[in-house]
Amino acid sequence: MLVLLAFIIVFHITSAALLFIATIDNAWWVGEEFYTDIWRICQNNTNCTEIDDTFSGYATIQAVQASMILSTILCCIALFIFVLQLFRLKQGERFVLTSIIQLLSCLCVMIAASIYTNQHEEIHDNNRLYYEGTFEGKYGYSFILAWVAFAFTLISGIMYLILRKRK
Description:
Blueprint: H1 2-24, E1 29-30, E2 34-36, E3 40-43, E4 47-50, H2 58-88, H3 96-126, E5 138-139, H4 141-162
Antiparallel strand pairs: 1-2, 1-5, 2-3, 3-4
Helix pairs in contact: 1-2, 1-4, 2-3, 3-4
């Protein structure tokens, strides 16, 4: 039982780390001479422009930003509640609250990655001044980590739902 508990905690911490990296790091759309993320656009690896309200499609980027931040916060809260429930739940009860919060985190990261997947071409087309030379790029590792974090949070949310507290 102790090994299972350690695995679940490590899996949850890994999920949180993936969410932090995907949210903070700047590799959602990359190319040879540029990289972009949900916060800024950098060309020639030095010339960086922050994404602000002058940006066309700023509301879309804000939705991605907010969803990723909310997902990360919910994942951390779920870990905290899991630790609390380890000491507060009676024997045989399920970790339902932890599961619900973790599944909400899963939903938020899915929403963010889906919005970016669907809208990245439109955002690039409407902001040619900022995205000049970035059309030959591909999805970067932060974007891929967001989708991996989606899978991890989904799996851990389901694990918490199935898991019962034992002695």
